[in-house]
């Protein structure tokens, strides 16, 4: 029975351990930063809000929510091969992403402990949540007789260096977009339980609240560093990270649209909703946001998706590598051009929006 759950499409590094997905520009990355610079950040101008968030993190509202119940105690042999493969790929990507956050936050908590204990405690508590998420996802993979070797990933993955300000921009957006992704899947499956092919989706409401709380911490942290939000360089970086996060999700999800179809979701419609909501969330913090309602915005992303799909087909072909490289160039250029168009599209002044609301 055990062997029947293992399919040739899911490559094993060794029995019961899934080989990590090949690194690409779209796969989750592991990060490191300048810990001394992060420790030197003064949060005095927004200390009250950050203290309130620390108290919420200490309360650990979800500590009893990630417990596997009897709904997991069943065989998953009835799932067809395609659905099983899509689920395992989703679980792997999600686990890797959560584990990446855990590693970064844990190291920040450890390295800042004696230099900036307040911020260190916040990061340590957030790393606790991310570890819980990653462990829950990895345990879910074991229902399909596969798991990730997280210790191996820790040592073997390449780490990307980000300056502290880039960590704050990127992690704020990744946590907020994670909130919108989880809550929309949860609400959809709450209305259409017939599409809930696996019980982990029942946990997404608690999950998204963790993501939202983490996003609020990074929002407060950013507001404690006004230099990261109030000049022309900040506006350019905010546009860059918004576009990077949105484009990465859009290209990934439309490439994996079959997974969303399994849940009864249209990947494109789902992503457009998530992008719009995340953009609106960012308007509460960032000085500018992207004009995602511009008629050319999603058209440009769709052209990038089409070019990426062509590159995937080329990558799977048996052509010689030099020929593959040459044939990829026009598609790379198309993606680059479409993203450049979106980056230089006139943004929306979020500061003016907040003034009008007041």
Low-confidence stretches: 1-8
- Gyration radius from CA atoms, angstroms: 21 Å
Chain-averaged pLDDT: 90
Strand arrangement within the widest β-sheet reads 1-2
Salient structural properties:
mainly alpha; 358 residues; 13 helices; 6 strands; single chain; two-stranded parallel sheet
What does this structure look like?
The chain is mainly alpha-helical and 358 residues long. The protein has helices at 35-39, 47-59, 81-112, 117-141, 150-156, 164-191, 204-223, 232-255, 257-262, 267-282, 297-316, 321-344, 350-357, and strands at 12-14, 17-18, 30-33, 159-162, 288-289, 348-349. The strands form three sheets. Strands 1-2 form a two-stranded antiparallel sheet. The relative contact order is 0.11. Residues 1-8 have low confidence and may be disordered.
Q: What order do the helices and strands come in, and which of them pair?
A:
Blueprint: E1 12-14, E2 17-18, E3 30-33, H1 35-39, H2 47-59, H3 81-112, H4 117-141, H5 150-156, E4 159-162, H6 164-191, H7 204-223, H8 232-255, H9 257-262, H10 267-282, E5 288-289, H11 297-316, H12 321-344, E6 348-349, H13 350-357
Parallel strand pairs: 3-4
Antiparallel strand pairs: 1-2, 5-6
Helix pairs in contact: 2-4, 2-7, 3-4, 4-7, 6-7, 6-8, 6-10, 8-10, 8-11, 11-12
